[in-house]
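Pinned message: reference record for Ferrous iron transport protein A
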Amino acid sequence: MFTPFTVNGSSLQLLKVGDRGIVKFCNIPDKNILKKLQSLGLNTGVTITIEQEFPTLMIQVGSILLEIDKELARNIYVRVINN
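Predicted structure (tokens):
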């Protein structure tokens, strides 16, 4: 009756520890914050890994660990990579 489906994309806010994804786009209205994230390596096409969910969201971008605010994570979208 129901056909199985998979989720190919998500905001960072919905991912769990160990999940990986490729950044597809950032819907961040504050251009200063967007430029700062880009300067830290969080660009379209880069692979990220969720390292920690609580108390703050920590993501691995290359060799850098970034602490991301939950509101900001809501506006960063990735294509989920199957582990």
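Pinned by admin. Summary line: Strands lie at 9-11, 20-26, 47-52, 57-61, 64-68, 76-81.
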